[in-house]
Amino acid sequence: MKRLWLLFAQTVTVLVAVWFVLITLKPDWVQRPSWNTDLQVFEVAPGAISPTVSAGSLSFAAKKASPAVVSINTSQKAGLEKNKDPWFRYFFGDQDDSAQTGLGSGVIVSPQGYILTNNHVVEAADEILVMLNDGRQTQAKIIGTDPETDLAVLKVNLDKLPVVVMNNSEQLQVGDIVLAIGNPFGVGQTVTSGIISALGRNQLGINTFENFIQTDAAINPGNSGGALVDVQGNLLGINTAIYSKSGGSMGIGFAIPVSIAKQVLEGIVKDGLVTRGWIGVEPTELTPELAQTFNVNRQEGVIITGVLQTGPAFKAGIRPGDMLLAVNDHKVQNVAELLAQVSLLKPGVDAQLKILRKEQEQVLQVTPQQRPKVRAERR
Questions:
Q1: Catalytic amino acids?
Q2: Which of 221, 246, 271 is the endpoint of a domain?
């Protein structure tokens, strides 16, 4: 009996040792696929230990992630029908019938052919051509778009597709080394490096929902929709915008975190759209003038300046002048945080709002509705 127990203990010890070696040296071997309806993606296994990066080289990350980053060429037909109208031609003359073209990038996130990119890359496109790093080209179709985060999901019908591995962007820290991969200016796939300069950037006026990763890795026109990856080549975000006076990189680029991108991807593939909560209020950053107007003894926060009378918040008892302190125990300090927390609420499922009214804190119960769909603006 003792011999059998000793043999069992030795076997378990060997298996644990093998598992430790695998997650240390070959974390890709223990990636866990996750399914959402018809969607399959790959994520880094929780607790996996990253392999050691060679000093002075980021080639491992580039080789791992680059095959899953594609170039996107779009074309938009000009107003051919209007040009055939004699009255249109009389008043406006002959217009240019040549097609308008655009450049961008995308990231293959599923072996089923789903590609994440920016909405502004494809929103006005009549035709979308996707070019893989291995030389293959194919037409893509739009599965769905989410203008409020500037994300879009495309689909191609090809086999043996390289797929990026998604990391957890919530674990990022300022100073982490990252790579930006895309197709700047249409010159071909390009890899640049930098660091995480800041996290949680918002109030930039780019999207409705903003929680950007800021990086100094060079991002230029054509990089939109490309990948921001870590030193293991795992996806951290979708490159979206730059701050520039010249049109080129000035070391201030912004990427949408993969956590948001994954939420949008799953919503579009599963339901055809991203379902978000909505309570029907007009929130505003608290200013000294507003604090005086509404007699609020606070220096900062979110004050409600308008409430839709047929909306969930009005029915719950929210009124103009209330300060909104928390949504389901999640504190909100600015409008961006409030929008993000409300968007996470499930329509029809009761939630709690903590407010401040006449220096008294109250907790109100609200039943959010589905956020009205925002029509994409042509850019």
A1: 120, 150, 224
A2: 271
